[in-house]
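ok trying again, last paste got cut off:
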Amino acid sequence: MTKRTAWPMVVPAGTKTVGTARVREDAPMPYAQKKLAEMHGTKPAHRFDDVADGSDDAGALTPAYRRETTPWPGVTKPKKAPKYRNTKCEHDGIKFDSLKERSRWFENVQRQARGEISDLRLQVTFELVPRKQRDDGTWERALKYVADSVYVEVETGKQVVEDVKSPATRKNPAYVLKRKLMLAVHDITIREI
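nice, full thing came through this time. structure:
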């Protein structure tokens, strides 16, 4: 095994090999890399020949996995899609987990204005299992359920706990457990919309 050299590595012109690696004078650039370089007017930061030549425009001299910024200026890393493909949104400072939840909130606000429901509340927390101390002195957190909206139906006078769920999220094991605990602890059946 050969000894590693300090970075930046300087390779004299005309050198054909460094250790077991070949030094290529004019390595072809992949098509996508070439198009990005043309679009941004930059050279790729990880080209061995540029770094070996010691040119300053070769980009950062740290390896790509250690760089905190993207290697291409102006290009951001794509965001990971949400697990259930929901779109988080905000309206008048109220944050909603999905567009469907927001539209249901607007519908409930209109229902309250018409007098069908009263005492409409958003994101109401119910404690299912209280906080407990273990034998070793550490604490187990309380288990809570946060309902999307809670209101009282004027016609029946009954409190309704409502949660907007897609067919996929209705099968989520954590949600199913909390739904069953809501029935067992608080005697409340969650209305899934």
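cool. The first helix runs from residue 31 to 40. Residues 89-192 form one domain.
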